[in-house]
Description:
The protein is 66% helix and 17% strand. The protein is α+β, with helices and mostly antiparallel strands. The protein has two domains: 1-227, no CATH class; 230-271. The chain has a five-stranded mixed sheet with strand order 2-3-5-1-4. Strand 2 and strand 3 form a beta hairpin.
Amino acid sequence: xxxxxxxxxxxxxxxxxxxxxxxxxxxxxxxxPDAVMAKEKxxxxxxxxxxxxxxxxxxxxxxxxxxxxxxxxxxxxxxxADAAGGCVVLQSHxxxxxxxxxxxxxxxxxxxxxxxxxxxxVAGGLVAESAESEDLAAPIFDxxxxxxxxxxYRDSLLALxxxxxxxxxxxxxxxxxxxxxxxxxxxxxxxRAHLQQRIDTETLTIAIATAGENERQAWQPLSRSxxxxxxxxxxxxxxxxxxxxxxxxxxxVLLPLAWALRWLWRRRRAxx
Length: 272
């Protein structure tokens, strides 16, 4: 057996031995990491489901045309000034003109979102309000399990590297595997933090339109068709003329051919 094969076999045996040791019951707990994760999942399932809900809210506002921009600016400024609620603006759009409208999306703590909603209710013009929640219990459990497994494997690799070895290839293999596991651990930890942020905060989207805009939008297709009647008529006439221009050469060919086929058919019929 070559030195490289002996080194690889030693690395595999050491990892298996360390993994078996790390899966043994921990002192004072009497349970393995898998048993602990299963217990945590059971606790989350039986606890208040609101602890794992990510909430998204939406409101529709209808105000006078000249009140859209002030309401948009005041709401955005209130969010940016709410340091206690950790409010951040996710997206914003303000359109002016004949059909002025504005859209604003923010993320903040539940208390911060409640303060913004209270300001909108006082300002007037709120015509619709809705909320929806997504249960993140399953993604959180899966991510926690990935983090626990990655940490366990990383600790095994660190213990193996701490023992030291004169084989450079073995050390390089351990370091490469350790770097890969550390990258997976950081990715899973970041995903877990993102899920927790969605639980700890709420998202609010605000749509501001001109009063009566929804009713006008129902008639917009008919109004647009009447407005574009002349242009559409011109396009249709141009298409018809173009078709005639393409059809004339084909008629010069197809009509004599049809006459010849008809003459042959009548002559054959007369011969019978």
